[in-house]
Amino acid sequence: MAFFNSSKTRTYLRNLLCFSIFFCFFSFSSSSSSIHDLLVSKGLPAGLLPKEVKSYTLSENGTLEVFLDGPCLTKYENRVFFDSVVRANLTYGSLIGVVGLSQEELFLWLPVKDIIVDDPKSGLILFDIGVAHKQLSLSLFEEPPVCKPQGILKNEARKEKGFNVVR
Predict the structure, then answer these.
(1) Strands 72-75, 79-91: parallel, antiparallel or unpaired by DSSP?
(2) pLDDT of 5-23, one tens digit each?
(3) To bridge 74 with a disulfide, which of 44, 147, 162, 164 should be the other Cys (CB 3.0-4.6 Å)?
């Protein structure tokens, strides 16, 4: 017991404990970095990309490549199709030159070219779909959506409307 009564020993143990806590916190935060954390750190909502992201790469020039298990569909306001690889140039508040992402508009699938959050306080996000710009509420993108393989979402949409899929 005399060992723990020493002032130097208590200081040493306190410093060791603080260092251990800091080290554990730093290790946890860097290893748990996900694409959704990256999006938030760049001023974009976490829910722009689905939960099913397998991995991603970000080059020094800002080229972002996101890898999914396979092509899939999800729904925000309208249906959205993700290719198995989505690419874009990531800058603060924007994904420019998006490839591998399409949005359904009036029965047509249009490629999403750019995604921009100019002013987060406005609560809006801008989607450039080539022929038009579409503003949506940022609240639609707060949580990463579940993305289902292509056929599953189509079948569920038919069931919601009272149609049974017969094959």
Answers:
(1) antiparallel
(2) 666 656 655 554 444 444 4
(3) 147
Q: What percent of the chain has pLDDT over 70?
A: 71
Query: Is the separation of the CB atoms in 39 and 115 below 8 Å?
Result: no
Q: Which amino acid is at 54?
A: K
Helices (runs of H) and strands (runs of E) counted in the chain: 4, 10
- Both tokens assigned to 18: 């603080």
The rounded distance, in Å, linking the Cα atoms of 17 and 60 is 36
Q: How far is CA 6 from CA 1, 2, 19, 115, 130, in A?
A: 9, 7, 20, 61, 72
Helix ranges (H only) for 6-163 are 7-31, 35-41, 150-160
User: Cβ neighbours of residue 62 under 8 Å, at least 6 residues apart?
Assistant: 89, 90, 91
Are the C-beta atoms of 101 and 78 separated by less than 8 Å? no
